[in-house]
TrEMBL record, chains A, B:
Coiled-coil boundaries: none
Protein's name in the database: Xanthine phosphoribosyltransferase
Bilayer-spanning residue ranges: none
InterPro entries xrefs: PRTase-like (IPR029057), PRTase_dom (IPR000836), Pur/Pyrimidine_PRTase (IPR050118), Xanthine_PRibTrfase (IPR010079)
EC category: transferase
Superkingdom of origin: Bacteria
Biological process according to GO: purine ribonucleoside salvage; xanthine metabolic process
């Protein structure tokens, strides 16, 4: 995605310790055209990777919601976002798994109701960043517990230097990122590909 | 919005103490067609209310993100969602205000970076529920602090029995909800209008 690459080059910032500041277009402000195009790009790339018959998009709050929603729009299937705290309305059976948030430096538990994920589903997991893959592995575990089939993982930005792709390699499914960031200049700046 | 009314009647549930379980289409699972149509419905209703020249949509994480994003798509303007915890990337100047979350029974502080809201902006605040208006009033306060002009408030579902509309009346701007819920049968069930 050329527009995404340009946006990252112009408006993202490397803060050190693995943290990319992408609040101008992912984690705080969202640009409608760019965000909608992310959904279309994911749909096309997964189609080209031979992924068909998706019934549901799965993500985790907070910053996964927008990219997952635009993929749901592009594929016309429901999206479910894992909650990080169990809200008062979350009654009934649920799946859960633990993850660790890098940008908030805390352990979290992800919850998805068993009403919205089950053995009949063929699922794509979509998130904003592929970093250490901690959140993604928690979502993978929830999808497995539900009996649904996981068909692919998509992330807007992959931090190649954090090894998340290797963490997910044993799944043997397409892992698609729309842009990939690598550190250069002894970790002081980054390049986008 | 007839499709929303039908969805609420078929899939929402009143849990008591003011809490509506709407996780099948707002707070946990999102239906792409219905969600996209919410954005179009808000855009049309604000236009009919004489609201023009909007430059930015403002909401709060978590459940406000989806309805605010679809309004941003319908109006082709950026959206910014207030964060409830200050993430590591949130450096620089910011606006903040306190609110109380009903479904999570805790006080929260909302943060918006001063890079994404300012005196040149004409703003719509969009959220999932209009209940006691605690979150909405915090967003109103942030918009005022930023120097932006607030042109309207839109909520997917209004809980008429919680008085939020009255809390916002002094703003003298259009307050639009796509569906309105009232309690009947001595608070044991609800009707949608």
């Amino acid at each position: 995605m050329k527009a995404l690459k340009t946006e990252i080059e112009n408006n993202a910032q490397y803060l050190g310790e693995g943290i990319i500041k992408a609040d101008a277009f992912i984690n705080h402000q969202l640009l409608p055209g760019l965000t909608t195009d992310m959904g279309l790009a994911f749909a096309e790339k997964f189609k080209n990777a031979g992924v068909t018959g998706i019934t549901r998009i799965v993500t985790a709050e907070v910053s996964g919601i927008a990219p997952a929603l635009v993929v749901a729009q592009a594929m016309d299937v429901p999206m479910v976002f894992a909650r990080k705290k169990k809200p008062a309305f979350m009654t009934g059976g649920l799946f859960s798994a633990h993850a660790r948030s890098r940008t908030k430096a805390e352990a979290v538990t992800l919850y998805i109701s068993d009403r919205f994920l089950g053995p009949g589903d063929k699922v794509l997991i979509i998130d904003d960043f592929l970093a250490t893959a901690s959140t993604l592995k928690a979502l993978v575990s929830i999808v497995a517990d539900s009996g649904a089939q996981l068909a692919g993982v998509g992330c807007v930005i992959e931090k190649a230097f954090e090894g998340g792709r290797e963490q997910l390699a044993s799944l043997d499914i397409p892992i698609i990122s729309l842009a990939c960031i690598d550190l250069v200049d002894q970790g002081k700046s980054f390049i986008v590909s």
